[in-house]
Design goal:
The structure is a single chain. By secondary structure, this protein is α+β, with helices and mostly antiparallel strands. The protein has two domains: 41 residues; 91 residues, Tetrahydropterin Synthase, Chain A, CATH 3.30.479.30. Helix content is 47%, strand content 21%. It has four helices and four strands. Strands 1, 2, 3 and 4 form a four-stranded antiparallel sheet that branches. A hairpin with a 5-residue loop joins strand 2 and strand 3. The longest helix has 36 residues. The radius of gyration is 37 Å and the shape is elongated. The termini are far apart.
Length: 149
């Protein structure tokens, strides 16, 4: 008498379930690869660091005639400015700069203008305004005259 032992055969349902699980792993890996590729592309096109702009090179300095600006309480300011142009600038019409200066300094209290921190803040505002008005051809402003009375 011969006794043979064989491994019990798995029911047909279990074999199919095992095959499905193996196929599910392949799908999961494929989905992960696709998601990583999409994430990398999104980073590259949307989130990558912007290229640093190079600072403009200084060009000519244009001095403008001093003007008088009315301040609050009957006081006035005699202010002269010089425009630091960029190397690419061809020429600068001073009327835009003088208009911006008058707009910024008019009707301010004299006591305010004697404080160095306020003057520095106003200078930064003037530079920002002139960069806009001159389309980036002005990169700085110097006060050549600043007298209050």
């Amino acid at each position: 008498m011969t006794i043979t032992t064989s491994a019990p055969e798995a029911p047909a349902g279990e074999v199919e379930a095992t095959k499905k699980r193996g196929g599910g792993r392949k799908k999961l890996i494929l989905v992960l690869v696709v998601l990583l590729a999409i994430g990398g592309a999104a980073y590259w096109f949307m989130l990558k660091p912007a290229e640093a702009k190079t600072a403009p090179k200084p060009g000519e300095v244009v001095s403008l005639e001093p003007i008088q600006v009315n301040l609050a309480a009957g006081h006035y300011l005699k202010i002269g400015i010089a425009l630091q142009l960029t190397a690419e600038a061809t020429e600068a019409d001073g009327s835009k700069a003088l208009d911006a200066t008058i707009d910024l300094f008019s009707n301010r209290p004299m006591e305010q203008l004697t404080r160095p921190d306020v003057r520095a803040k106003l200078k930064k505002e003037l530079v920002k305004e002139l960069k806009e008005r001159y389309d980036g051809e002005v990169m700085g402003v110097y006060f050549t005259d600043f007298v209050t009375q």
